[in-house]
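We emphasize that the prediction below concerns an isolated chain of 151 residues; any contacts that depend on oligomerization or on bound cofactors are therefore not represented. The input was used exactly as deposited, without trimming of termini.
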Amino acid sequence: MKIPVEKNKQYVVEIIDNGFEGEGIAKIDDYTIFVPNAIKGEKIKILIVKVLSSYAFGKIIEIISSSKFRVENDCNTYKRCGGCNLRHIKYEETLQIKQKIVQNLVNKNLKTKLKVQQVLGMENPYHYRNKAQYPVGLDKNGKPVIRCICK
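Result of the prediction step, given as a token string:
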């Protein structure tokens, strides 16, 4: 397959979805491009910063048409800290994105698909930083287990 993009070149793309970590996903000739801080439904001009055999990474140069869910972020360290990588999206929409992410992950390898319930939001989702990661797997008897890595 010929890669349809080149590093350090600019392209105009439509963001067709949001990925596992909230990044925008675009396609050029069925070739996937991940774009941090882009939102599904946006039309943007990007600069390709990294090209691999099956996907690339782009950086927003200009937002041509913005998503109705885009908001101005209110945090000076938002782009550096990594604690809230969806801060540029309306909170209610981030709940939908998170539900879809969990739904896809839960059902990725299951024969009998499960329905993930609606994500519960907070009344005031600002001025905190909570990030937890829990490995999920099966024990030797095939029962689901969650291992807490607490320090």
